[in-house]
Every structure is written in structure tokens, then in C-alpha cells.
Amino acid sequence: MATIRAGLIGAEIQGSRSPAMHMHEGRETGLSYSYELIDTAKRGLGPEDLPDLLDDAERRGFSGLNITHPFKQRVLPLLTALSDDARAIGAVNTVVFSKGQRIGHNTDWWGFLEAFKLGLPNADYTSVVQLGAGGAGAATAFGMLRLGTRRLTIFDTNESRATALASDMQKLFPDSMVEPGLDLSATLALAQGIVHATPTGMVEHPGLPLPAAFLDPRLWIAEVVYFPLKTALLQEASSRGCRTLNGGGMAVFQAAEAFRLFTGRKPDANRMLSHFRSMTEEDQVRD
């Protein structure tokens, strides 16, 4: 049986659960499947090395690669084709190598949406504030608007990036109001929830992405960071009475769709979710 090879390219990703999730599901589906962690920070590489990393994976016969921070948008010029979703979002987290082609997909938006529906049932998402306008933020914005959010206000430390993403999403969803944010406190007063889509809260980027005093208990908080699973934002929000959603579900569901693209086999998403939970429970015991 030929081995299906895949991997993940990103910076500071030693805590990623993607290799374990993919290879466990590969075993469960009877495949010979390997999944390699390609951490550019650990290897002393930068964005300029991304073309060589893709070339190397393709040369070694990989079926595809997952792409994470900070390369989800930087990878776009290196691809030969994009799925409709990836083109609309302007960010790629999954690259499939097929017949000399490099096809970019985005499974993040679907993964986030599935996790949101599962983890925050009956949440009011009419008016939402999003923090972050990078690759992950493009996917979560697309997901919330597909779900039916009527007003999405996007904040980013890079104001021009927030403006650009808001403009792109407004064109895709003309029946909703999508705009860059100016006054976070005032906007939150009119919102029902917060989507957090920045690296803040990761082990390498500790802290809160907004003042703790802004976390009103009537707000729900949806996180994309999953390592650690209980970020400082989620801990603070929970202590103030907010409903919260960790980033684990998004990690699992986006991985399930990437697995299907790499292998041609439909994975058992519930089994993957159960496996992920067992891994994170072990982490908490060790902590």
C-alpha cells in the first residue's frame, strides 16, 4: 500500500495537534498515512523560504499541505488554482498537489462554522465584532456571514487590513453590513458576540486581545486559538459570565475536510473530535 504523505507549514507550531489527528484518522480508515510538521521558526526559516518548502513537498510526493499562520495569504501567489471558497476568502489553509497543479482550498471557514453551530447553539449572531483580519479572520468573517450575521464589524491592529477585508466581504455579502471598526467599546455595546481571530493567546503570544473590562456577560466569545485550549481570553470571559467557544472544534472540523481532500476518503468527524478531546484532556492532566 502506497503511503499518503501530507504536512503542515507554519511558524511556532510545535503544539499543533494536526499530525496526531490526521495520522490517527488515517489508521482508523486503514490507510498508510504520514503527516509532517514543518515549523519554519524551529528550522530558522522565513516567508522567503515558502516557495522552496512547497517545491520540496511536491518533489517528495506529498498529496498536499496544510498552511497556517503566518502563510495563509502569502501562499496565494505560489498556487496554480484556487477553489471558489479560497478565492472568495483570499486565504488558503490547504494545498492539494494534483497532476502538476497546486490547488488552494480553505477549510477553515467550514470548520469554524461547524464548531460554532455545535458549541454555541441558539446564539444570537445578528451583530458580531471580529478581532483580526488576517488569514484566519478572513475565514471566520466568511463563515459568520454565510451563517447569516447581519452586521459584522472588523477590528485589526493594522487598520488598512481591516478596511480591505471588510470591503471584500461587503462585496460578497451585499445584504449584510460589513465595516472596519473604529470604537471597540461603542461597537460592543451593540453586538451579541465576539469572534477572536488573532494569534494573541497562543503560547508564543500571551495576553488578551482587548481590555478585560469590555467582556460584558451578555456577550458570547468564539476563539480560533486552540493551543492552549483555555486561552487567557476564554478564562477571563468565563469568569465574567460570558458563553465561550474554544478553538478546538474549528481545528478538528477543518482538519477533517483537509483529510478528505488529501486522501479522497471521508473521515469520521465525530471520531476525530473524540480523539482531539482525549488528547487535550491528557494535556490538562499533565498541567
TrEMBL record:
One Gene Ontology term from the biological process aspect of the record: chorismate biosynthetic process
Keywords: Amino-acid biosynthesis, Aromatic amino acid biosynthesis, Oxidoreductase
CDD domains per the UniProt record, alphabetical: NAD_bind_Shikimate_DH
Domain called SDH C-terminal: residue spans: 249-273
InterPro entries: Aminoacid_DH-like_N_sf, NAD(P)-bd_dom_sf, SDH_C, Shikimate_DH-bd_N, Shikimate_DH_fam
Cited NCBIfam families: PRK12549.1
Protein name per the record: Shikimate dehydrogenase
Source organism: Acidisoma cellulosilyticum
Gene Ontology molecular-function annotations: NADP binding; shikimate 3-dehydrogenase (NADP+) activity
Cellular component annotations (GO), alphabetically ordered: cytosol
Domain of life: Bacteria
Pathway membership: Metabolic intermediate biosynthesis; chorismate biosynthesis; chorismate from D-erythrose 4-phosphate and phosphoenolpyruvate: step 4/7
A Pfam family: SDH_C
Domain Shikimate dehydrogenase substrate binding N-terminal: 8-95
